[in-house]
């Protein structure tokens, strides 16, 4: 790192120092810096826990949520990563993979202390509210250190080949002649310049290897009417921007006992004021369709029929209809929800 003296046209090189020589600690200094300003890791993260104890008795340095609703394990080392930090990260991510949404909210509530009553709302505000249901579907690991052992670099690259979302961020301290400390942050795995290409490649490999683990599903439930009504009410009362769009979509399907095309539904979104543009209406309908084909919503596929999908996520769907035997049941559900909202 260099300090620039503009008028003198000079650069003054700042010496790279060690955290240890400065008397700075991993837990009481570096951890606090990252917790207070997680953007130093190169992205927007919501820190939800610090020194989180796990079942083995070990403590996870920092736990965060990213914008895609993944849990992010952040493991910090001071001047050298050592040779086992990758294993620590994997162990912690494995533990976190089993956390339920309620457990995550409880963890964040405890972290916030006196402000904990707003924990769930803060998570929903941070991520897209429509993604709240997918909270912790995936986990990531970020390893942070001034230097990384060659064994760690090798194992991280190998793990990424097998679709483990693990990254290395290098934080380097510099000291000027006035004793002011500066930090630089560099993501070394994956390199930012190649990140988009690498992530696309890894995602494609992951889809090819683990297609059976996709969040997409065409499987239908076989619920009793009482169970079906309960599940529909739960989905149609979710505090989400997507919910009113789903309700308008279903109300349209109930107006006539016929198959509705995408264009008819898009026009209804415009007529109902959901949006003013047909192009945006198409995107909103795609969001509705994606929600209808999540593994967690088989009850919608029990009452609806549509063309397209074919077992493949992302395929455009069309010609939606409510199955005749469920039309009265759906009308009752929508009526009860409207009465409750009044």
Task: Please name the defining characteristics of this protein.
342 residues; Trna Endonuclease, Chain: A, domain 1; Arc Repressor Mutant, subunit A; 2 domains; six-stranded mixed β-sheet; two-stranded antiparallel ribbon
Compact overview of the structure:
This protein has 342 residues and is α+β, with helices and mostly antiparallel strands. Helices cover 42% and strands 19% of the residues.
Strand segment tally: 10
Uncertain spans, ≥5 residues at pLDDT below 50? none
Q: Which CATH class of the largest domain applies here?
A: Alpha Beta
Main β sheet profile: 6 strands, mixed
Name the helicity range.
Answer: 40-55%
Which fold name is given in CATH as the topology of the largest domain?
Trna Endonuclease, Chain: A, domain 1
Can you walk me through this structure?
This protein folds into two domains: 2-213, Trna Endonuclease, Chain: A, domain 1 (3-Layer(aba) Sandwich); 225-341, Arc Repressor Mutant, subunit A. The strands form three sheets. It has a six-stranded mixed beta sheet with strand order 3-4-5-6-7-8, with helices on both faces. Strands 1-2 form a two-stranded antiparallel sheet. The chain is of the alpha+beta class and 342 residues long. Helix 7 (225-236) crosses helix 12, helix 8 crosses helix 10 (278-292) and helix 8 (242-255) packs across helix 12. It has helices at 26-36, 85-96, 101-112, 119-126, 150-161, 195-209, 225-236, 242-255, 262-271, 278-292, 298-303, 327-341, and strands at 2-5, 10-13, 45-53, 59-66, 71-76, 139-145, 166-175, 181-189, 304-307, 318-322.
């Amino acid at each position: 790192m260099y300090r620039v003296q503009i008028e003198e046209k000079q650069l003054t090189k700042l010496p790279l120092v060690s955290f240890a020589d400065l008397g700075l600690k991993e837990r009481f200094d570096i951890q606090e810096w990252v917790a207070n300003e997680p953007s130093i890791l190169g992205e927007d993260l919501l820190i939800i826990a610090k020194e989180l104890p796990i079942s083995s008795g070990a403590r996870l340095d920092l736990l965060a949520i990213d914008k895609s609703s993944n849990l992010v394990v952040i493991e910090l080392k001071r001047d050298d990563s050592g040779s086992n930090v990758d294993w620590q990260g994997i162990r912690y991510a494995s533990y976190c993979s089993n956390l339920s949404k309620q457990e995550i909210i409880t963890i964040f509530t405890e972290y916030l202390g006196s402000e904990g009553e707003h924990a769930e709302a803060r998570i929903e505000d941070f991520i897209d509210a429509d993604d709240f249901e997918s909270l912790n579907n995936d986990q990531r690991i970020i390893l942070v250190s001034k230097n990384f052992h060659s064994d760690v670099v090798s194992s991280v690259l190998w793990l990424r080949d097998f679709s483990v979302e693990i990254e290395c961020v290098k934080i380097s301290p510099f000291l000027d002649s006035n004793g002011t400390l500066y930090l630089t942050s560099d993501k070394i795995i994956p390199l930012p310049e190649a990140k988009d290409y690498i992530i696309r490649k890894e995602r494609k490999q992951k889809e090819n290897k683990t297609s059976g683990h996709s969040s997409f599903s065409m499987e239908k439930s076989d619920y009793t009417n009482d169970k079906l009504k309960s599940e529909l009410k739960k989905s149609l009362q979710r505090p989400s921007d997507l919910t009113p769009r789903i309700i308008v979509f279903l109300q349209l399907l109930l107006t006539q006992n016929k198959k509705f095309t995408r264009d008819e539904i898009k026009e209804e979104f415009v007529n109902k004021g959901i949006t003013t543009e047909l192009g945006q209406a198409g995107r909103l309908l795609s969001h509705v369709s994606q929600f209808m084909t999540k593994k967690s919503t088989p009850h919608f596929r029990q009452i609806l029929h549509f063309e397209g999908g074919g077992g493949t996520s992302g395929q455009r769907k069309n010609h939606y209809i409510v199955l005749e035997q469920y039309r009265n049941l759906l009308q009752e559900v929508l009526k009860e929800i409207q009465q409750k909202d009044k």
